[in-house]
């Protein structure tokens, strides 16, 4: 049975410093994401792009610094608006698919989604842990802090988005594909005992086994969210993203991962983030992202 999918464009670029990522949602639309979902039997309602009161500054050169965080007020405003949309999507028994946009969008999407579940599970497919705080971040970029804030750790304004203090439980999070962790993130992973599969683990175990262990770890959850950062893929295969790290996943194995995950019929929401067409070659990264995502929504290799 097809899903009722709310496609939500999150054009925020405030969580990081490179221009272009705010064009990610439209790049994904140009790459055919709506048609792909429809072709696989889903009913898609394109909600358009979320616009905050700072919309005219999406690609601004001037960076505001508040509490040692870059663009804090802009991220807060955007996250509140996005949270209302994803919350409404869940209330209507729809599948919120948020496309971005930098990874700070997950603060808004998950702040709207998580309160609807007692134990929301989250698979964080990313080269980075996104577990910094203002005290541990070397850059002050909020897109590298989102998971910490969702755990209730960090800036009080960020942890209180949507009026709900702690959105996620550490035991309900699995990191996959990480290969660039700051010292503070490593400490937090150990302190909170967050299940983490580095790229070394993926190469040793294989991505199929990583998924099996992930789903076993999350079998008690009552919802499952996938946050898919395209920088999890090796930069040899994906050029159009802002924070590249060598030694990543290969497209072929991510396709396998998505296909196997879709067979479990557990996924209830998703983010697709960090597509930056200004860093790309003829929109190939967006096309690759849509191609990979299709296997999560029904396409099969055989």
TrEMBL record:
Keywords noted in UniProt: Arginine metabolism, Hydrolase, Manganese, Metal-binding
Enzyme class: hydrolase
Cofactor binding annotation: Binds 2 manganese ions per subunit.
PANTHER family hit by this protein: ARGINASE (PTHR43782:SF3)
Binding site for Mn(2+) 1: 103, 128, 130, 229, 231
This protein's record includes keyword Hydrolase: yes
Residues binding Mn(2+) 2, per UniProt: 126
Lineage of the species this protein comes from: Bacteria, Bacillati, Bacillota, Bacilli, Bacillales
Any Gene Ontology CC annotation: cytoplasm
GO molecular function, one term: arginase activity
Enzyme Commission (EC) number: 3.5.3.1
Gene Ontology biological process: arginine metabolic process
Catalysed reactions, as listed in the record: L-arginine + H2O = urea + L-ornithine
Family membership: Belongs to the arginase family.
Pathway(s) where this gene product acts: Nitrogen metabolism; urea cycle; L-ornithine and urea from L-arginine: step 1/1
Cofactor(s) in the UniProt record: Mn(2+)
UniProt xrefs under InterPro entries: Arginase, Ureohydrolase, Ureohydrolase_dom_sf
Species: Nosocomiicoccus ampullae
CDD domains recorded: Arginase
PROSITE patterns, alphabetized: ARGINASE_2
The protein, known as: Arginase
């Amino acid at each position: 049975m097809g899903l009722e999918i709310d496609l939500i464009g999150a054009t925020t670029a405030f969580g990081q410093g490179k221009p272009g990522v705010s064009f990610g949602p439209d790049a994904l639309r140009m790459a055919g994401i709506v048609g792909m979902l429809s072709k696989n039997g889903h009913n898609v309602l394109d909600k358009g792009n979320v616009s905050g009161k700072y919309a005219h500054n999406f690609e601004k050169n001037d960076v505001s610094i508040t509490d040692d965080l870059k663009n804090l007020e802009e991220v807060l405003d955007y996250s509140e608006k996005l949270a209302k949309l994803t919350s409404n999507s869940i209330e209507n028994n729809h599948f919120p698919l948020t496309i971005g946009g930098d990874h700070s969008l997950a603060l808004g999407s998950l702040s709207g989604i998580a309160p609807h579940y007692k134990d929301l599970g989250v698979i964080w497919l990313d080269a980075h842990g996104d577990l910094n705080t203002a005290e541990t971040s070397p850059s002050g970029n909020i897109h590298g802090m989102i998971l910490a804030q969702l755990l209730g750790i960090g800036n009080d304004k960020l942890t209180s988005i949507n009026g709900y203090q702690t959105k996620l439980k550490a035991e309900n999070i699995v990191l996959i594909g990480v290969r660039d962790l700051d010292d503070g993130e490593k400490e937090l992973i150990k302190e909170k005992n967050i299940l983490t599969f580095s790229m070394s683990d993926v190469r040793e175990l294989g991505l199929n086994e990583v998924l099996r262990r992930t789903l076993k770890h999350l079998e008690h959850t009552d919802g499952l969210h996938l946050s898919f950062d395209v920088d999890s893929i090796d930069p040899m295969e994906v050029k159009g993203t802002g924070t590249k790290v060598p030694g990543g996943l290969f497209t072929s194995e991510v396709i396998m991962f998505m296909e196997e995950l879709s067979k479990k019929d557990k996924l209830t929401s998703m983010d697709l983030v960090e597509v930056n067409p200004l860093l790309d070659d003829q929109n190939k990264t967006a096309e690759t992202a849509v191609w990979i995502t299709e296997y999560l929504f029904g396409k099969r290799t055989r």
